[in-house]
Amino acid sequence: MINSKTDNAVEKIKSLTNGHGVDFAVDTTGVTQVMEDSIQALAQGGTTATIAVTPNHIDLDTWNDLCVDDRSIIGVNMGDSIPQIDIPRLIRFYKAGMFDFDKTEKFYDFDQINEANADSGSGKTIKPVLVIDPSYEPGK
Fold this sequence. Notes:
single chain, about 140 residues, alpha/beta, Rossmann fold, 3-stranded parallel sheet, two-stranded parallel ribbon
């Protein structure tokens, strides 16, 4: 496990990948340093996706961070859905008994990672969410 509070995440990732970096990274935090690290940890041709809605910004050198290594950054908001259309549709499905909302996400402590993986694989939980630091509070 890499703990970016105590480890240099980019160095650890590069070390684990023989200096290459990863093909894909996903930032769900919206924390500036984590977003920037997700770019730096990419291999040549890699892509990072930012999911968090955040007021924070990143410092980006388009030549070195993107062009030289052919890296990409994509923003993700509910996948490829259109919220104005898809949320009302999901509500209709739920009311008709065709969408089991309670299965969409379940929180697991980090030491339950194997259970979360099994539940995801079996379909018991669609979106297992691992809680690494239960004391974390956004914005603090």
